Amino acid sequence: MLLFWRWKEVYFGDNLKTFAAVRNCLGAKGIRYHYRVVNQSHRGGLFGADKSRIYYGNLFTNKKVELLYYVYVKNKDYEDALYLLDCNHI
Fold first, then answer.
1. Sign of torsion over alpha carbons 8, 13, 18, 19
2. What does the pLDDT look like over 17-52, one tens digit per residue?
């Protein structure tokens, strides 16, 4: 279970290569992480339908940004993870 007060976000984006690089970098240094992938093109709402999607369709959605990637690390590893990602230019 991912308790929000114990984990901090170190990466958020739509680039799969950068997401993989972040995960590989953290894993190589032994920093424990969790990740989440959100599909923007299929959002559920009340009874499985997003009301804005019903009214507007896909008019205002960016087709290139369908998947969003999130990476979280524990609070105690947050500074180390940021330093590591910054040193590796990720």
1. positive
2. 999 999 999 999 999 999 999 987 765 555 555 555
Residues 70, 23: contact at Cβ < 8 Å? no
* Tokens found for residue 13: 């984006």
Angle at 67 between CA 81 and CA 36, to 5 degrees: 45
73 φψ region: left (φ > 0), alpha (ψ -120 to 50), beta (else): beta
Candidates 3.20.20.140, 3.30.70.1370, 3.30.420.40, 2.60.120.920; correct CATH number of 7-87? 3.30.70.1370
